[in-house]
Amino acid sequence: MLKVEMIKKGVIAFLVLGTVLVLAGWRYGTLQTNGTDSREAEAALRSLLILSDQTPGTLDKLVVKWQGDWIPNHGDPADIVAQIAEQLNIPTASKLVENGHTLYRSVRDREDLKIRLNVMERQAGQWYVVVQLESSDTGREQLIQLHKLCAEQLHSIGVQAQWNTSVQRSLQAKESVDQLMKRTEASLAGDISMQAKERYTDATTVAVSYEAPELPLIVQSGEHQVQMQMAVHENRAQQNKRITLGFPIITIEY
After folding, report:
1. Which of 61, 155, 181, 202 could be joined to 36 by an S-S link, Cβ 3.0–4.6 Å?
2. Confidence check: pLDDT of 213 > 50
3. What is the pTM of this model?
4. Is residue 78 part of a domain?
5. Using the 8-state DSSP alphabet, how is residue 217 labeled?
6. In sequence order, which residues have a C-beta less than 8 Å from that of residue 226 and are 6 or more positions away?
7. Which DSSP string do the residues of 87-156 spell out, in sequence order?
8. Once rounded to an integer, what is the mean pLDDT over residues 241-248?
9. 150 and 180 share one domain
10. CB-hemisphere CA count at 13 Å for 172?
């Protein structure tokens, strides 16, 4: 029983690590690609999606997150946020106050494409910007074009933004999660050189982080450099399995 609890805590730590790294704006890692160059950002995302297509299953969810610090040197932040919303073709951002901090938020929620914009004031004159793009397979190309637009727009207003992406696929499989993980690793190993660095398991999940130098995004995780994380999860309620890939780490629930 103690061992099971320790494993569960390890999985939670694995997820928390990813969340902390993302919320910190990659302060603990570096990027091999210039995140503000729209053409390079598009090419990098396309290359990662081509790789993810080698994994079993049907694409259910594609998520790209842009985020970073912002100091508005010119103009009213409210006006600039309104410009971002207009460029993304989403509703005008609502102004909220949470825990004494100003927050601008806008959401467009469609089945094929979801966009979430949050601009949070950390302290006077200092903000944090998060743009999350999420699509199903049908909205994939539109998401790629919005990803490119984010690279252009966020850079143009001075946001120190970086991005990451997570891909989730589902399938019916009789294999155990460990067996499915090994099959998926073998499939990906034909395209990239990858070495497992961290591994966590429980009764329904196997999660592994990898060093894969050929991939364009990288973050420092403890003593290791990580370019990819993968999790295989058994969804007993829906009686299927999910494969989640994160570049460089998973930032969505698996």
Report:
1. 155
2. yes
3. 0.86
4. yes
5. B
6. 197, 198, 209, 210, 211, 218, 219, 220, 248, 249
7. HHT-PPPEEEEETTEEEEEEEEE-SSEEEEEEEEEEETTEEEEEEEEEE-GGGHHHHHHHHHHHHHHHHH
8. 98
9. no
10. 2
pLDDT for res 73: 86
Same domain, 156 and 176: no
Q: DSSP states of 221-249 as a string?
A: ETTEEESEEEEEEEETTTTEEEEEEEESS
The encoded tokens of residue 146 equal 């919005």
The last residue of one of the domains, among 120, 140, 163, is 163
Contact status, residue 122 vs residue 101, Cβ threshold 8 Å: yes
Give the torsion sign (CA, 26, 28, 33, 36): positive
Three-state DSSP class for residue 85: helix
Distance of alpha carbon 51 from alpha carbon 167, whole angstroms: 11
Domain boundary among 132, 163, 194: 163
Instruction: Please answer whether residues 212 and 182 qualify as being in contact, where contact means their C-beta atoms are separated by less than 8 angstroms.
Output: no
The phi and psi torsions of 158 (rounded to 5 degrees) equal 90, 15
